[in-house]
From TrEMBL:
GO molecular function annotations of the record: potassium ion transmembrane transporter activity
Name of the molecule in the record: Potassium transporter
Record-stated family: Belongs to the HAK/KUP transporter (TC 2.A.72.3) family.
Residue ranges of the TM segments: 57-78, 90-110, 179-201, 221-239, 246-268, 294-313, 325-345, 365-385, 422-440, 446-470, 477-497, 503-522
UniProt topology in membrane: Multi-pass membrane protein
UniProt domain K+ potassium transporter C-terminal: residue ranges: 554-728
Signal peptide extent: none
CC terms in the record's Gene Ontology section: plasma membrane
Domain K+ potassium transporter integral membrane residue range list: 58-540
Domain of life: Eukaryota
Subcellular location: Cell membrane; Membrane
Length: 730
């Protein structure tokens, strides 16, 4: 049930499932709760569309998926440090851009990467989760997708296969798993950096068009106007993109159609033979003639493919066919013609490269293009901002990032989310980037680092998917890896030389984000390890309840625990000190799976635990799900499921003589009052702790103290919440 969340609620929770056996190895066995349904994503992820529906979706992708890519002509040439370029130089640059768009855009993303979806979801994180679901490589054991189904023993085509040698290597090597986790985290951080830099460079480049007809306008004024536009854009985020989304696709459609028309006009007028540069001959001549200088220019040419990752990352919002149709028949031809027109103009006006877009626009249509360019830049910014919200949401849900508030701004579009905290931070960083690094070249250098690093990370993860999951023939895998790793590696090596000239910005942002993510991850891991070591099993619980001093008080208690084959040590702490347990107690685990969506009938799974009035409950969510169980609805749905489960139990399973009596006790407890109990734990850092533990756990405590609480995610009323404090010895 989708709905807009109230301001007081967070869309994420803390408690996750830990599945371990006696040897500390993740296992699919479930000693407390059983799932009789296989993990399945929502049917929305596998929708089959007809030709008409695909064309409509392809049109809609223009305003969401391709905003960053199709507006790249605004800043590619201005970002290049060209020095007295010649005709051959421009022909070589166009050849590089053409083959970059063709190989990376058409071959890598449109033809290969879009097939590597994780139940309809795309992006670098989806690739990592896809690997985690097929082989046991997840560092965070609680994120491992396990069920009684044979999901892990079959490939995506349903064929049972032996695990590859590379898969076995990753399972055995902790170092390799940590490296893979680092790569995945770096990819997420770089994508967030993209969300900061895209609005800055897009809006700044578009607003810079004011200076051509009005040379007296200073660069400082352009920067101030750009900052005002960005602030207004971020202030509108709380209303959601759905209210203005009808403007997006027409704007980008007009841009996609108009710029290649101007490009064709420029080609005919200035240099009709421009398409001879499609020959790779000009590309090789460019590097032979320019040597190191040509290599350094790659830091600017890589921006022609910026936004291509969105084709893959936004796959879950549309489908493969619609994205392929839009890119191959609209975006790709538009970019090829637009860059050809820009290059043709610059061949005749070689020193206009610092304003390589607006200078090639005919004066008769200058202002309409300026208006469309500004609107298109805002749309491009919006798509990356929304993508950043989605990435943060997925990271929080999977416990890789501290909890922040996530609001669903649409009652019909699940992926449309907004985070006030993230939005405010993005706004501050975007405005700071513009005001401090107002030079388009510096921001372009930073942008080049983000673009090339994300592409390279996708290539590495996609190669692992090809080897481990797809079992692609080694020759084809090697051809793919060598081609794109070398190509993108050269781009990365070029943009790394720009680190002193603005390229350090995304690394600084990524380092801060990665440190936050690792600090949170490490603290959560240590907490999980303690809870697994000191967990309460059923025999221990039976012994605690057998104490004559422990009373069963009236009421229904939801006791939250984050380990599945046992109970949280906080339970023992609670019973020993309170000397009581509610008449009906439901040990509740909020379980997040590495699948995008969990089917509604699989969300709530309950089971008797063999003690009177004691039950287990798992609430399951995928990383693209919203929490649809709120407040009293949550209590009602769980108790209804429990009632059905009690009624359907066989005589052998039932531990109470009368099902009716058990249901009566459940209803009586519910009427007596409902309470939600969760642990409030902190680490006790003793003198024997290493300096690393002292530093990381202290940092984790700071994050934990300042992040959103977990329990409000289910909308539990404030008077019904109880927090039980306990110190975990580090």
């Amino acid at each position: 049930m989708d709905r807009q969340q109230s301001d007081g609620e967070s869309a994420v929770v803390e408690d996750v499932v830990v599945l371990v056996n006696g040897n500390g190895v993740v296992t699919a066995e479930n000693h407390l709760l059983t799932v009789n349904h296989s993990m399945a994503s929502s049917s929305l992820d596998h929708r089959v569309f007809g030709r008409k529906e695909n064309l409509v979706l392809a049109y809609k992708t223009l305003g969401v998926v391709f905003g960053g890519l199709v507006t790249s002509p605004l800043y590619v040439y201005p970002s290049m440090p060209l020095k007295s370029p010649t005709e051959d130089d421009y022909l070589g640059i166009y050849s590089i851009m053409f083959w970059t768009l063709s190989l990376i855009g058409v071959v890598k993303y449109a033809s290969i990467a879009l097939k590597a979806d994780d139940h309809g979801e795309g992006g670098t994180f989806a690739l990592y989760s896809l690997l985690c679901r097929n082989i046991n490589i997840g560092i965070l054991s609680s994120k491992r997708v396990e069920s009684n189904s044979s999901l892990l023993s079959t490939n995506q085509y349903g064929e049972s296969e032996k695990q590859s040698r590379l898969g076995k290597f990753f399972e055995r090597s902790l170092v390799s798993r940590r490296v893979l986790l680092f790569i995945a985290i770096l990819g997420m951080c770089m994508l967030i950096g993209d969300g900061i830099l895209t609005p800055a460079i897009s809006v700044l480049s578009a607003m810079d068009g004011v200076r051509a007809p009005f040379p007296s306008v200073s660069k400082t004024l352009v920067e101030a106007l750009s900052a005002i536009v960005l602030i207004a854009l971020f202030m509108l985020q709380k209303f959601g993109t759905s209210r203005v989304s009808f403007l997006f696709s027409p704007i980008m459609g007009a841009w996609t159609l108009f710029t290649p028309m101007v490009g064709i006009y420029s080609i005919i007028k200035h240099y009709p033979s421009i398409f001879k540069a499609i020959s790779p001959h000009y590309l090789f001549r460019f590097f032979l003639r320019n040597g190191k200088e040509g290599w350094l220019l790659l830091g600017g040419t890589v921006l022609c493919i910026t936004g291509s990752e969105a084709m893959f990352a936004d796959l879950g919002h549309f489908n493969r066919s619609s994205i392929q149709i839009a890119f191959l028949f609209a975006i790709y031809p538009s970019l090829v013609l637009t860059y050809a027109g820009q290059t043709a103009y610059l061949i005749r006006h070689p020193n206009d490269h610092d304003d390589g877009f607006y200078k090639f626009i005919p004066s008769a249509v200058y202002w309409p293009v300026f208006v469309i360019a500004t609107l298109a830049a805002i749309v491009a910014s919006q798509s990356l901002i929304s993508a950043t919200f989605s990435v943060i949401k997925q990271s929080v849900v999977l416990d890789y990032f501290p909890r922040v508030k996530v609001v669903h701004t649409s009652s019909s579009k699940e992926g449309e989310v907004y985070s006030p905290e993230v939005n405010f931070i993005l706004m501050i960083l975007c405005v700071a980037v513009i005001l401090i690094f107002g030079d388009g070249k510096d921001i372009g250098n930073a942008f080049g680092v983000v673009v090339s690093m994300v592409m390279l990370i996708t290539t590495i993860l996609l190669t692992l998917v090809m080897i481990i999951i797809w079992r692609t023939p080694p020759i084809l895998t090697a051809l793919y890896f060598i081609t794109f790793f070398v190509m993108e590696g050269i781009y990365v090596s070029s943009v790394f030389t720009k680190i002193p000239e603005g390229g350090w910005i995304p690394f600084a942002i990524s380092f801060i984000l990665a440190f936050i993510m690792f600090g949170w991850f490490y603290g959560r891991q240590r907490k999980i390890e303690y809870e697994v070591t000191h967990k309460i099993d059923l025999d221990r619980l039976r012994l605690l309840l057998s104490d004559p001093g422990v009373q069963r008080v009236p009421g229904l208690c939801f006791f939250y625990t984050n380990i599945q084959d046992g109970l949280t040590p906080i339970l023992g702490h609670y019973i020993n000190n309170m000397k009581s347990l509610h008449q009906v107690t439901v040990f509740t685990t909020l379980r997040y799976l590495l699948v995008p969506k969990v089917a509604p009938h699989e969300r709530i799974v309950v089971k008797k635990l063999g003690l009177k009035g004691v039950y287990g409950c798992i609430i399951q969510y995928g990383y693209a799900d919203s929490l649809g169980l709120e407040g009293n609805d949550f209590v009602t749905q769980v108790t209804d499921t429990l009632r059905d489960h009690i009624s359907n139990c066989s005589d052998e399973e039932a531990l109470i003589s009368s099902d009716d009596a058990e249901i009566f006790d459940l209803e009586a407890a519910k009427l007596a009052g409902v309470v939600h109990v969760r642990g409030k734990t902190r680490f006790y850092i003793g003198k024997n702790c290493s300096w690393f533990d002292r530093t990381m756990l202290a940092f984790y405590e700071v994050l934990h103290s300042n992040c959103r609480p977990a329990l409000p995610a289910l909308g539990t009323p404030l008077p019904q919440r109880i927090e039980v404090g306990m110190l975990y010895e580090a």
